[in-house]
Amino acid sequence: MDLRNIAIIAHVDHGKTTLVDELLKQSGAFRAGQAVAERALDSNDLERERGITILAKCTSVEWKGTRINIVDTPGHADFGGEVERILSMVDGVCLLVDAAEGPMPQTKFVTSKALALGLRPIVVLNKVDKPDAEPDRALDEVFDLFAALDANEDQLDFPHLYASGRSGWADAELDGPRADLAALFELITRHVPPPKQIAREDQPFRMLATTLGSDPFVGRELTGRVESGTLKVGATVQALSRIGQKIEQFRVTRIQAFRGLAQQEIEVAQAGDIVSLAGMAKATVADTIAALAVDEPLPAQPIDPPTISVTFGINDSPLAGRDGKKVQSRVIRERLMKEAEQNVAIRVSDTPGGEAFEVAGRGELQMGVLIENMRREGFELSISRPQVIFREEEGARMEPIEEVTIDVDDDYSGAVIEKLTGARKGELLEMRPAGAGKTRIVAHVPARGLIGYHGEFLTDTRGTGVLNRVFHGWAPFKGAIPGRRAGVLISMEDGTSVAYALFNLEDRGRLFIGAQEQVYQGMVIGEHSRDNDLEVNPLKGKKLTNVRASGKDDAVVLTPPVRFSLEEAIAYIDDDELVEVTPGAIRLRKRYLDPHERKRKARAEA
Hints:
Layout: E1 2-10, H1 16-26, H2 45-50, E2 57-63, E3 66-72, H3 80-86, E4 92-98, H4 105-116, E5 121-126, H5 135-148, H6 153-156, E6 160-164, E7 169-171, H7 182-191, E8 206-215, E9 219-228, E10 231-232, E11 236-240, E12 246-251, E13 254-259, E14 262-265, E15 268-269, E16 274-278, E17 288-290, E18 308-313, H8 329-342, E19 347-350, E20 356-361, H9 364-376, E21 381-383, E22 387-388, E23 391-393, E24 396-409, H10 413-421, E25 427-435, E26 438-446, H11 447-450, H12 453-460, E27 466-476, E28 488-491, E29 495-496, H13 499-505, E30 509-511, E31 518-519, E32 523-528, E33 534-536, H14 566-572, E34 577-581, E35 586-590, H15 595-605
Parallel strand pairs: 1-3, 1-4, 4-5, 5-6, 28-33
Antiparallel strand pairs: 2-3, 6-7, 8-9, 8-17, 9-16, 10-15, 11-12, 11-17, 13-14, 13-16, 18-20, 18-21, 18-22, 19-20, 21-34, 23-24, 24-26, 24-27, 25-26, 28-32, 29-31, 30-32, 32-35, 34-35
């Protein structure tokens, strides 16, 4: 069968997973009447809840005698480690762009990787049926983006289609029949070249492992594209590291290919096809699986370095062990090492003492997803404030810079620019009208300045602003950036909070807890209205006397407390605070629970 391998890349929420749903339906991958969930490829619970793609996934469709392997890639730069490996498996890319928003930061990030590999893109202007769609402007912006990314002449001469993924149509003309996706299928088969590997079937078997999975019956599974030769079930092969070192020799127990939404067992893996192999015990991502006669490994794509680090520690609060079952540092370390093996964009290292682990990654969202997954698996953790990773170049201290793209109502643009270019040391690059009363702002801001900014940004824009960020590069250290200005309210007692005490504390600032919640000494229960920390007693009840007034007591009505999401809590805390994460709760606390210890540490730091 004729074969094509293509990746679909797009910014978050530009509709690529929905488009893949329609490709599967119209190609006949589903039987008539089959119940299929919306966004079928988003199989992970977190992906469904957040509406984003976190893990790259493969599927395949058949169209008029041609099998098209389609890879759905994550749209967020924090998961870019997935994208960089996946692009080595395909021969073309389909760039999906929202006709109203145009190309966004994550579009730029993934497209730059694809163009650098020499892939010729197909541009699909999606959501052209939206009332605020401007497909011609979006197309011009895509061309400008390609030119800015040093695309060659073949890449600049890209074909484009107008589409609506939700409605299931794509046409070469904006006023086309709008019937189905036949135009997209035909363009893929015509524009994307067949795999070059098909011509190398007579050579020894070689495959570069790009993703790692596991199966309860056969153990580890590695997925990649067969670069040369063929492989049968039961054959003996070897795994080579990036530098050519032999890792292990093993017998292939199962070969699976992607057919629709399912994986189907096959007897022979052909050159050019994307398959999953089982049988290995040690081989991992970026290793070369090859015949025994092969000595040279396949070149693996370099992965961009991590830019932030977070310290994962055991939960040592008085409430530890009540929700989760996995609380020991040994168990936490095993889980983090397993994650680092599967996700090449994450690095794990031990801290002195061995009770905590430093996890380096791409961004706060990537860290938040890892912590949320561990939390649902029954882990209890204490998480530190994210720290930016610096590096030295020619004796100078360099820090990561992010490109920030903001769409905000015109009335709030001044406040946003003041915050970014003032204390946060940002540099304004572009400011222009974006239509519908909105302004688009593009700036280069140190990654340090964006930690904890998103909540402040939503407050400044009354919840109407949209902020997107992507790693831009390294620049000389820009000096101190002030952190959170407000202090916190700290509980001085252990027990259950009382409504009467919380009512009297509301004058002191915003509260993070409600009545009848467990608290302990050193737990952060609110934000102080001033810049210093304040120890308070949330357990203090109303004193009873033998004197009764004629009227009854006033009912205590509390203001609803502020409830942080996981990412918001991690971004909010200061350097001397931690986030306590359990399956049932997210709490903030001081790093040192004993008040005397806190004062001694504060004096030492001063």
